[in-house]
Every structure is written in C-alpha cells, then in structure tokens.
Amino acid sequence: MSLISSISRPGPSTSLSRLLKPQFSLESRRYAAGEAGPVGKAGYLQKLGSAQKSKMRKKLPMYKALPASQLDRPILVSNKPQFDPPVFTPAAIKAATAVGQPFVINPKDNDPMKCFGIPRKLWLEFKLLSRPYTVVREVTKDIIQLLEDAKQSSSANTRVVFTGRPGCGKSFLLLQAVESCAQQNWVVIYIPRAVDLVNSTTSYAYDIRTQTYLQPWYSFQTIQRMLTVNKEAFTKIKLVEDLVLEKSVLAKGTTLDQVIEAALAERGVSVAQAPVYLEAVMKALEAQTQYPVILAIDDMQTLYGKTAYRDPHFQAIHSYHLSLPRMLMEFASGKRSFQKGAVLGAISASQTTHPIPLELRDALDLHNENYRIASPYEKRDKVLVEYAKGLKNMAVPEKLTLAEAIGVFEIWKEQQVFGREKFFYDEAFMGKYTESGGNARDFVWKGLLATLDT
Amino acid sequence: MVHILGINLPNGALVRLALTNIYGVGHHTARRLCARLQVHDQCKVSDLSPFQITSLASFLSSPATAPPLPRFPLAKPDYVPPPPSVSAKSLIDAFMEHRKTKALKNPDPLKNLKIESELRREIRENIAHQRMIGSYVGRRHAMHLPVRGQNTQSNAKTAKKLNRLGRY
C-alpha cells in the first residue's frame, strides 16, 4: 500500500461528525414559544444533557503521520541507504551539474518556509516527502541570475510575475528564489497565500487617517514573522521618522527589532496598531541601502481581483482599499520601491475562486489560447490598471526537461512511494513523463502517485 | 457564551452563523449585520470585541432608531495620509461636518429589520387581520389546515400541527 493512500480517502472525522450532528437545536427553535411539542416521544439526543451533547459535537483530531522514530516494526525498516541529496545553498545551485539535481532544504528556525509558511500544494507535497526536497531547473538558474543583478538596483526595475500552466512549477520557483535570498542575507518578505488577504478570514477596520480598511491581525502576524526571519538585519536598520502611537512615541533612529519587540511585548494593545508598526517598518526598509529586500507574493492574482470583504453598507470593498493588498500593489507597481531588491510574484491556478483578472492579463500580456477570450470592450478598473503597470511576465516552461524530470523521479523513488524489487523504473519513468506531457504536477500526482503499484 | 437580547450565542461558532439563532435573522441578514459591525466571515463569537457586542446588542434592540451609517471616504491611488500631528478625532469631526451638507441616498435595509417578539407580534397580527376580514386565509388558519392551496386528502400534517390563530 502506498504511503499516501491514507490521505487520499476521506478520514473518519468527516463522516462521524455528520452522523453526530444533533437534531435538538432545530426542535427548540420551532417550539420556542412553548407550544405543544411534536407527536411522539423525545428522541435520544433530546434527552441528553447539554454537557454530553457538546462532548459529542467535538470533532476527532486530524490524523497525522507517525514520526520516523516510531516506525520500528520490521516490515517498515528499510535496508536501502537513506536518500541524502546535497543541501540547497546558493553556491551549490550555481554549479554546472546542478540542473536536474535534487536538493534538500534544511530550514533553520528563522527560515522563511517555517515562519511565513508555504502554499498549500507545496505543504502537502513536503508532508508526503517528509523533507522539503526540490529540483533545480534551468529557470531556477535564470531567476538566481536575475536576483544577482537586482541586488544592486532598485526594486522598481525588477518586478517580475511568474506565469504558466497550472502545475508548471511557479510556486516552487518562487520558494527557491526566497530560500536563495534568505541564505544570502537579503531581507525577505514572503506572502505564500495572498488569498488570505482578500477572502475575509482576518479582521478589518476602517481608518479615517489612511482612508482604507486596515487589517490589524494580519499586519501583526506579518511584523512578527518579519522579525523572526530577518532578525539580524533588523538590528541594523533604523526608523526614518518618529513612530507616533496612541500612548507612546518611538523615536527616529530606533532599530526595527526594538520597534517590533515593543509591539510584541504589549500584544493586547499592539494588534490594533499593527498596521502603523508595519507601515513604519516598510518605510524604513524603503529608505535603507544596506540590505537588498525581496518581496515575494504567491497567489498574486488575488490582489487584483474581487475581495470577500464588505463595508458597513454591504458594498464590496476593493482590494486597493484594504491596507495590505494596497501596500503590496504599491510595491508591485513601482509607486513605492526598495533601494535595492526585487518584487517577485506568482500566479496561482489553484485558486479557482480567484481567476486572473483582466487588468493583470493586460499588463502581463496573457491573451493566448490558454485563457478565455477577453473583449477589448470589457471594462477594466482604471485603478487596478495603474497598480499593474510595469509588471514583467516570466513564463515558466510548461515542460520539465528530461534531466529535471529524472531529478523529480529520483526523489519520489527514494521515498519508496512506488516500485518494488525488479520494478521497471525506466519504463515507468518514460511512460509517466509522456502521459503527463512533462507537466511537473501531473507527472507527480497523476503519474508517479497514481500507478497501480502506488 | 455571549448573550444578546437573551439569546445565547455559542463561543466557538462563527458569528455569521451564530446570529441566525436570533428569530428573524437568516443568513443574508446575518451577513449584513456582520458587515455593519466590520466582522469578517471567519470571526468566531469569542473573537468579538466588547465594543462590537454592545453595538450589536444596541442595534438589535431597536434597528429603526439606529443612527444612520456614514459613508466614509476611500483613498485614491495618490492619496497621502495626513501627518500624525493631525488627530483622528479632528479628521472624524471634519468628515461629520462635511457629511451634514450631503443628502442621504440609498437607505439602509436593516432599518426595517424586525426580530424576536416584534416579528412574532407582526405575524400574529397578520393572521388576526386575515381572520377579522373573514378571508379564506383566516378561515384556514382557524381550522388548522393548509393555507396556500396544498393537498389535504393526504399530508397536511405540519399545517394540522402548527396552523392556528394564536400562532407564535
């Protein structure tokens, strides 16, 4: 049986929680005025006390994979040598033999992957793989070179968005770029799921000063994560002006780590003022020239589309009237820029509720057979057109080359996800590579993980 | 557990779903109420601030007499916020002054919201009115039979159970 078969079928928690859904609340609402009850006797759930009912309502915990140390049964012990690819470092990936080579990312405690998180699909893949393995591609080397060139120039000159077919490797490429920058002491700001900024999952409140809707909780999380990842750099970067808060003032010249630690110390009060802290931190990062800054945004198209937020009159709030998407779009459009650094974005096809908006398609010139035909008479939002100006399209190759596909194959083979003694690995590889047409996600999920042996 | 107008909202529930426990508030009205209070979709009842709870309770106690909602200005792309030396209070006062000069359009639909005892009274009065004028609808309510032309040869169990003049 495959390692992922337990994940592919629905877990018991789903079916059980549906079965245990209590009926009593419906009855009590109907007969709230004290009218005669239903014909017949009260059922089992109606007779239960409230404590028991709330116990039954509790869901079962999520089933997690056992840690490797607990896998001590003889059947699970493998005699094969452990897969030990080289560690993903900027120096290692620059080598000529790096293309097609699998690497492993060893995230430290302050790694952007651990602190900012990663997109859902990557999270699931790394969960199955047990360690974050990644393959270096030709396009990875191109991006690394682009970032080398961007190190000394303004971020307004390097505003790139990765586009391409679903599953061609945009999010992976963005993660590789972020990891590479983090290891080269860049200041890293990584937004792995920009959809969370616009889908009404975090608090929002109107602010008359900025005339936008602030997002206090997400801003607080962002400054907390930025401090953890960029601690060393923040001890040297200072505020460019006084930070005026409700009950205190942080003077110009205070280092950013002291600013954010002051916010974290008084969490109860600071969450509401977190957007003010974030704005001050971003201004300081804009002004400084010591460290190049990378602003990486996955699910970038969600920033340019409709949001799920509503104003008190129940009118939809545009993304450019929300503080965080507005700030990210200002950097993406070049209205604001870092002295040194780059803005990288990646379109996501996984967000089916957030298709790529027309304004972004126009800016990136995505009018080809892969997208729906857009009439020139369809309305474009002028503000969004302004915020999408100057973005450069970097098309990620649709197909993995043979060498790259071999690297991916090797990772999953060494995880013993498929295959057995005397298995025809060459035939399996060529078959699945051809079936998927070289598409990375299809090669793994519909190819390697969907064999009869998996 | 948060109590609003005597109705208990469970702590772990989403606010926009917990509000439907109020008689007269369905999913659409609950969403409108959440928008009015700037409560996001995934907010749980335990995450509500005391200010939000009190403003919700005060609004629901009499929606018709609630103060009109202001339409706050929204920033254009080139908007530069005023410096911190200008206090938020002065900005709000300036906005309120400006607002007085503008005529109000698009009245708030939540103003006509009726919940709990008021809504029950309205339904009771409607049924009583139908009976008073001697209409078919009134007679059917009095006879505990379906009102809207449903079959009575079979089914009609719900009508026989619930339809009455003193309903609600």
UniProtKB/TrEMBL annotation, chain A:
InterPro entries: P-loop_NTPase (IPR027417), Ribosomal_mS29 (IPR019368)
Entry keyword Nuclease: no
Transmembrane segments: none
GO molecular function: structural constituent of ribosome
GO cellular component: mitochondrial small ribosomal subunit
Coiled coil: none
Location(s) in or outside the cell: Mitochondrion
SUPFAM superfamilies hit by this protein: P-loop containing nucleoside triphosphate hydrolases
Keywords, ordered alphabetically: Mitochondrion, Ribonucleoprotein, Ribosomal protein, Transit peptide
Family membership: Belongs to the mitochondrion-specific ribosomal protein mS29 family.
Record-given protein name: Small ribosomal subunit protein mS29
From TrEMBL, chain B:
Domain of life: Eukaryota
DNA-binding found in the keyword field: no
Record InterPro entries: Rbsml_uS13_C, Ribosomal_uS13, Ribosomal_uS13-like_H2TH
Biased composition (Basic residues): 158-168
Annotated spans, Disordered: 149-168
Compartments, as annotated in UniProt: Mitochondrion
GO CC terms of this entry: mitochondrion; small ribosomal subunit
Keyword Cytoplasm recorded: no
GO molecular function: RNA binding; structural constituent of ribosome
Main location class: mitochondrion
GO biological process entries: translation
Pfam families linked: Ribosomal_S13
The family this protein is said to belong to: Belongs to the universal ribosomal protein uS13 family.
Entry function: Component of the mitochondrial ribosome (mitoribosome), a dedicated translation machinery responsible for the synthesis of mitochondrial genome-encoded proteins, including at least some of the essential transmembrane subunits of the mitochondrial respiratory chain. The mitoribosomes are attached to the mitochondrial inner membrane and translation products are cotranslationally integrated into the membrane.
Protein name as annotated: Small ribosomal subunit protein uS13m
Species, as recorded: Hypholoma sublateritium (strain FD-334 SS-4)
